[in-house]
Specification:
0% of the residues lie in helices and 50% in strands. With 127 residues, it is mainly β. The strands form two sheets. Strands 2, 4, 5, 6, 9, 10 and 11 form a seven-stranded mixed β-sheet that branches. A four-stranded antiparallel β-sheet has the order 1-3-8-7, with no helix packed on it. The mean pLDDT is 95.
Length: 127
Amino acid sequence: QVQLVESGGGLVQAGGSLTLSCAASGRTFSMYVMGWFRQAPGKEREFVAAITWNGGGTYYADSVKGRFTISRDNAKNTGYLQLNSLKPEDTAVYYCAAHDVNFGNDWLRQTRAYNYWGQGTQVTVSS
């Protein structure tokens, strides 16, 4: 089992920045990928970014590419999502997720590829 705890959400103005953290515990040695998803009210949960835990390969949704940066510190068992140039449409609950199975790159953007989820942290961007 892998436990994930997000932190760092809050209220920011458009154009501002925020850094989200995802602390992993448990059987972190088995973790293959950590991803970030977000869900706005009335919307489906959508992929934001992902990073392979060992190799550090990164993947981004087109909507955040160039603005968000995903990273991880293996020694701290912590993943990060840096949100820059925030827009009101970025407002959502952000979830980190992980999986210990390598489904391949084509699956990293799918919620079903992840079996561990954090509780979510609210990001609100005001205009």
